[in-house]
Design goal:
The complex is a heterotrimer of chains A (about 300), B (about 400) and C (about 100).
Chain A lengths: L29 H13 L3 E5 L3 H6 E2 L2 E2 L4 E4 L5 H14 L6 E7 H6 L2 H9 L5 E6 L39 H6 L5 E6 L3 H12 L5 E6 L3 H4 L6 H10 L6 E4 L2 E4 L9 H6 L9 H21 L2
Parallel strand pairs in A: 1-4, 1-5, 5-6, 6-8, 7-8
Antiparallel strand pairs in A: 2-3, 7-9, 9-10
Helix pairs in contact in A: 1-7, 3-5
Chain B lengths: L4 E5 H11 L4 E3 L7 H13 L5 E3 L4 H13 L4 E6 H6 L1 H10 L4 E6 L13 H4 L7 E4 L3 H15 L8 E6 L7 E5 L3 H7 L15 E3 L8 H30 L7 E4 L6 E5 L4 H13 L4 E6 L1 E3 L3 H8 L4 E6 L9 H10 L7 E6 L9 H15 L7 E3 L9
Parallel strand pairs in B: 2-3, 2-4, 4-5, 5-7, 6-7, 11-12, 11-14, 14-15, 15-16
Antiparallel strand pairs in B: 1-8, 6-13, 10-12
Helix pairs in contact in B: 1-2, 1-7, 3-5, 7-9, 10-13
Chain C lengths: L22 E3 L13 E5 L9 H5 L5 E4 L2 E4 L9 H5 L5 E5 L4
Antiparallel strand pairs in C: 2-5, 3-4
The chains are: A alpha/beta (about 300), B alpha/beta (about 400), C alpha+beta (about 100).
Chain lengths: ~300, ~400, ~100
C-alpha cells in the first residue's frame, strides 16, 4: 500500500497527549500498548467503543475513567454495531471530522462479535475496528477463543497426556475481513510499533470500514516476564507464526518477508502456555506456517 | 379545517408517527409482523420525506446496539421488532435501560417459538417486563401513531431518560386498516422538542459511558434507574393531557376506564382485545348488569394506584391476557393481584388466558368470561386461571 | 495537559450527586497506580540517546518527552520493565522500590 500521501506519524512528531491513562491493565499488558498508540494516532476527536474484554474492564471502573477521549462500553457481541450507531448518529447530527474506533479482543472479534462486524463492513460504516489479539479470553481467565493457536494451553484446553492443549487452528480473521472486500485491512504487532502506527494512520485516512488485527501479547496469560511483552510480539512475527500484511483495493501485500525465520521452537517454549509441546506438535505448527508462507509469497507480492 | 385522515394499518400508523417524531437514525431488522413499519420508513427515507439515516443492520441485537450508539451521541433513535427478534435483543434491552438511553421501539406482539407461530400474543414483551423499559399496549392504529409521538416526549424527559416500548397486537392491529387522523408536522414539532440529554459523548464535554461499578456504587445506579421509572408515571399523565389539549385525543394516561363508575364486575384488558370487551360491556349494561372495563395501558410502570382505586369499589376483577407464565398464571394477573394484595377486602379475581398463538377470541368468549365472574360473585366455584377456547379435553 | 492527573474525588452523599446514568468525565482519575510497582525504572539521562523507544512501547504511557530526554510519571508507572528491556543503550535500570 502506498503510504506516501499521508503524513507519517513517528515517535518524534506523535502527539504528547495520552488518551488511555491510569488504567488497571496488568503490568506489561500488550493490549494497552495497542489501544494507547492507536488513540495517539487518531487523536481527541475520536469515539472509542469497547465490548466486554480486558480493555473495557480495566479502563472504566467508576470513578476511575482511563479514556481521556469519548469512550463507551458496548455489549460483548455488539461493538461493531454500537460503533456504527455512534458513527451514523454523529453524522446525522451534522458532526464533521471525527473518527469512531472499536478496540475488541480476539474472542470479542473472531467469536461473539463476528456477525456485527461482518454487518458493519457490509454497510461500509466509517469505523476503524482494532482487534487486539492476545489469543484467548484473558479477562475471564485464559479460556480458548477462535484465535487461540494450535497447541495452546488455556484453562479450557488443558495440556494433558491425551490432548496437548487447543486442537483447532487460529481462525484466519484477516482474510475473512478481506473476503468482505473491506476498504482497508491489515495485520500488525506491538512488536513492530512503527508499522502498527502507520497502519492505524492509514485506517484513519480511509473512508469506510478498516480492520486492524494487532498481535498483542499478554504476560499474564502467556506466562512470560512482563518486560518481554514487546519482544515476544516481535518474535511471533520473526518466527513466521504471525505475519504483517495489508489488504486494499482487492490486493494483498506482505509487509515483511524474511529470508529465514527466527526459531519457532524458541518462540514457543519460552512461554508457559506452550511449554508442554512435543517436537511432533511443533512440527505440525511449523508445517502449517510453511504452507501459509508458501501461499502468501506466491500470491501476496 | 378538518385534519387529514388516512386509511392505514397499525404498522403504517407507527411509521407515520415515527416520521413525525423526526428520529435521526432508524436501525431495524425485518421480522413479521413488524415489516410494514420498516418498509414504509425505508421508503420515507428514500423519498426524502424523512430526513434520517436508515441502518440495515444484520440482526436485532445489532439494531439495539446501534440504537444505543446513536443515543449515546445525543441523537434520536428508533427501532422496531417482534417476538424472536425482541428476545434476541434481550441483552440490549437491559443495557439500554441501565444506560438510560431513551430509545423508542415498536414491538409487534407475536407468539414465541416453539412451536413456531407468526400469530399474535403477548408472551414476547411480557417475558421482558423486567428489562427496565416503559411498556405501553395500544388498542388501535390511531393510538399507535399518537403513542410514538408521546413516547419520545416521555422517554426523553430529563427525570425519566428511560427507553420506551410500544406494543401492538400482531396482525390484529399491525395489519388491520383503520381511518387514522394524521397530526400536522408543525403541531408535532411544537409538542415534541429536540432531544437533549446530559448522558452523551461530545467533543465539548468528553465522557466515558456505560462503565462498570464496584459493589460500592452499583446499587445507587439501579436505585436511580428505578426512581426514573416511577418518575415516568407523572410524566405519562402530564403528556397525555398535553397531547389531548393539542390534538384532541386523550387516552387516560396509565389506564383508561370505561363505564366503571358504579361497576361491580370489571374486566382488565391489554391491547386490541379492549375493543371487543367494550362492546360486551355495552351489551351487558343494556341487560342491566353493572360491569365496566379497565384498559391497562402501561405494564411498566405498573398502574398500581389506579387498580387499587378501582378495586376498592368492585366485587370481582377479570384479567384477560394473551400470555402465560409457565408453571404459574398470566403475568398481568400476577401483577394485578400484587396490587390487590395491598387493600383490605380485595375483590375476587379470575384470569382468562386467551388468544395465544393467534387463537380466536370471540364476543361470546368475552361474554362467558363475565358470566364466570358473575358466578364467582354469587359464590359458585370458578377456576381461577381459565384457558379460553381449548380445542380438546384436558382432563382438568 | 498531556496526561490526566489524580484528582480529589468526593463520594456522593445524596442520590442526586450521582451522574444521570453510568456516565462520567473522560480521563477522571481518582487514584494512582503507584502502589502496584515493585521495581522503579530509573533513567540515566547521560546515557539516554532520546530514541523514544521507551516512550512508544510503554503500556501505561507514563514515559514522556522532557527537555530532549524522557521522564517518567511515577504516579502511574506499574514497573513492568518494558522500557528498560527495550532500551537500546541500557539507559534505564529497574531498581527495587524498597532500596530507594
Amino acid at each position: 500500500m502506498n503510504n506516501t500521501d499521508i503524513k507519517r506519524i513517528t515517535p518524534k512528531n506523535i502527539t504528547d497527549k495520552e488518551f488511555f491513562y491510569g488504567h488497571k491493565a496488568c503490568a506489561g499488558c500488550g493490549g494497552s500498548i495497542a489501544v494507547r498508540l492507536a488513540l495517539k494516532v487518531l487523536g481527541e476527536r475520536t469515539f472509542a467503543v469497547l465490548p466486554a474484554g480486558c480493555m473495557s474492564a480495566v479502563g472504566f471502573i467508576f470513578p476511575q475513567m482511563a479514556f481521556v477521549n469519548n469512550a463507551i462500553i458496548s455489549t460483548f457481541p455488539g461493538s461493531a454495531s454500537m460503533a456504527s450507531g455512534v458513527s451514523v448518529g454523529a453524522r446525522a447530527l451534522g458532526l464533521k471530522d471525527y473518527k469512531t474506533v472499536v478496540f475488541a479482543g480476539d474472542g470479542g472479534t473472531a467469536d461473539i462479535g463476528l456477525q456485527a462486524l461482518s454487518g458493519a463492513i457490509d454497510r461500509n460504516e466509517d469505523i476503524i475496528y482494532v482487534c487486539y489479539d492476545n489469543e484467548a479470553y484473558m479477562n475471564t481467565g485464559i479460556q480458548k477463543s477462535g484465535l487461540t493457536p494450535f497447541g495452546t494451553k488455556t484453562t479450557t484446553t488443558p495440556a494433558g497426556k491425551n490432548i496437548h492443549g487447543a486442537q483447532s487452528f487460529k481462525k484466519n480473521m484477516f482474510e475473512i475481513m478481506a473476503a468482505h472486500e473491506i476498504a482497508y485491512a491489515a495485520t500488525a504487532s506491538i512488536g513492530y510499533p512503527q508499522d502498527y502506527i502507520d497502519k492505524i494512520n492509514r485506517a484513519k485516512h480511509t473512508k469506510g470500514t478498516s480492520f486492524i488485527h494487532v498481535y498483542a501479547s499478554c504476560p499474564t496469560g502467556w506466562g512470560i516476564p512482563t518486560e518481554t511483552t514487546v519482544q515476544i510480539a516481535k518474535e511471533a512475527v520473526d518466527s513466521g507464526l504471525f505475519y504483517l500484511a495489508e489488504y486494499q483495493n482487492r490486493k494483498f501485500k506482505l509487509n515483511k518477508n524474511p529470508k529465514s525465520f527466527f526459531s519457532a521452537k524458541d518462540y514457543l517454549l519460552k512461554q508457559a502456555r506452550f511449554k508442554h509441546l512435543t517436537d511432533d506438535d511443533i512440527n505440525i505448527i511449523e508445517q502449517q506456517r510453511d504452507e501459509k508462507w508458501e501461499y502468501m509469497r506466491e500470491h501476496w507480492k | 379545517m378538518s385534519n387529514k385522515k388516512l386509511f392505514i394499518s397499525g404498522d403504517e400508523a407507527v411509521a407515520i408517527g415515527t416520521k413525525l417524531s423526526r428520529p435521526n437514525v432508524i436501525s431495524a431488522y425485518p421480522i413479521t409482523p413488524q415489516t410494514v413499519t420498516v418498509e414504509r420508513l425505508s421508503e420515507m427515507v428514500e423519498s426524502g420525506e424523512l430526513k434520517a439515516e436508515y441502518m440495515h443492520v444484520e440482526s436485532e441485537h445489532s439494531a439495539m446496539s446501534a440504537a444505543m450508539g446513536v443515543s449515546a451521541v445525543g441523537a434520536r433513535a428508533f427501532t422496531a421488532t417482534s417476538s424472536q427478534g425482541l428476545l434476541y435483543m434481550a441483552e440490549g434491552l437491559h443495557y439500554a435501560s441501565g444506560g438510560r438511553y431513551p430509545i423508542v421501539m415498536m414491538n409487534a406482539n407475536r407468539s414465541l417459538a416453539l412451536p413456531w407461530s407468526i400469530y399474535g400474543d403477548q408472551r414476547d414483551s411480557l417475558s421482558l417486563l423486567d428489562s427496565g423499559w416503559i411498556q405501553v399496549y395500544v388498542e388501535d392504529a390511531q393510538e399507535a401513531l399518537d403513542m410514538i409521538i408521546q413516547a419520545y416526549k416521555i422517554a426523553e424527559n430529563k427525570d425519566v431518560l428511560t427507553p420506551f416500548m410500544i406494543n401492538l397486537d400482531g396482525f390484529v392491529l399491525t395489519h388491520t386498516y383503520e381511518l387514522v387522523e394524521i397530526p400536522e408536522q408543525e403541531k408535532v414539532d411544537e409538542f415534541l422538542p429536540p432531544f437533549q440529554t446530559p448522558n452523551k459523548m461530545s467533543f465539548e464535554e468528553p465522557k466515558n459511558l456505560a462503565f462498570s461499578t464496584t459493589p460500592a456504587d452499583n446499587l445507587e445506579y439501579k436505585y436511580q434507574q428505578n426512581r426514573a421509572m416511577f418518575n415516568s408515571i407523572n410524566v405519562i399523565n402530564d403528556v397525555d393531557k398535553e397531547f389531548g389539549d393539542k390534538f384532541e385525543r386523550y387516552y387516560g394516561g396509565m389506564v383508561q376506564e370505561y363505564r366503571c363508575d358504579d361497576a361491580e364486575v370489571v374486566m382488565l384488558t391489554l391491547g386490541s382485545i379492549t375493543g371487543t370487551v367494550r362492546m360486551i360491556v355495552d351489551k351487558l349494561r343494556d341487560e342491566g348488569k353493572k360491569v365496566g372495563l379497565l384498559k391497562i395501558r402501561y405494564m411498566r410502570p405498573f398502574p398500581e394506584k389506579e387498580i387499587i382505586k378501582l378495586a376498592k369499589n368492585v366485587k370481582a376483577i377479570g384479567v384477560v391476557e394473551k400470555d402465560i407464565s409457565f408453571g404459574y398464571e398470566g403475568t398481568v394477573f400476577t401483577n394485578v393481584n400484587s396490587a390487590l394484595s395491598k387493600i383490605d377486602n380485595a375483590p375476587l379475581s379470575l384470569n382468562f388466558l386467551c388468544g395465544m398463538g393467534g387463537r380466536d377470541v370471540s364476543k361470546s368468549d368475552i361474554y362467558n368470561m363475565f358470566i364466570s365472574l358473575f358466578n364467582a360473585v354469587k359464590g359458585e366455584k370458578q377456576k381461577r386461571v381459565q384457558f379460553i377456547n381449548m380445542g380438546v379435553e384436558t382432563d382438568e | 495537559m498531556n496526561r490526566p492527573k489524580v484528582q480529589k474525588y468526593v463520594r456522593p452523599k445524596h442520590i442526586d450527586d450521582y451522574p444521570v446514568g453510568p456516565q462520567f468525565t473522560a480521563g477522571h482519575l481518582s487514584e494512582t497506580n503507584a502502589a502496584w510497582r515493585t521495581f522503579r525504572p530509573i533513567i540515566d539521562k547521560d546515557l539516554c540517546i532520546n530514541c523514544l523507544r521507551c516512550y512508544i512501547v510503554c503500556p501505561d504511557g507514563v514515559i514522556f518527552k522532557s527537555e530532549n530526554k524522557v521522564d517518567v510519571d511515577y504516579d502511574y508507572c506499574k514497573g513492568c520493565g518494558v522500557c528498560a528491556y527495550e532500551c537500546p543503550v541500557d539507559a534505564i535500570k529497574m531498581v527495587k522500590e524498597e532500596l530507594l
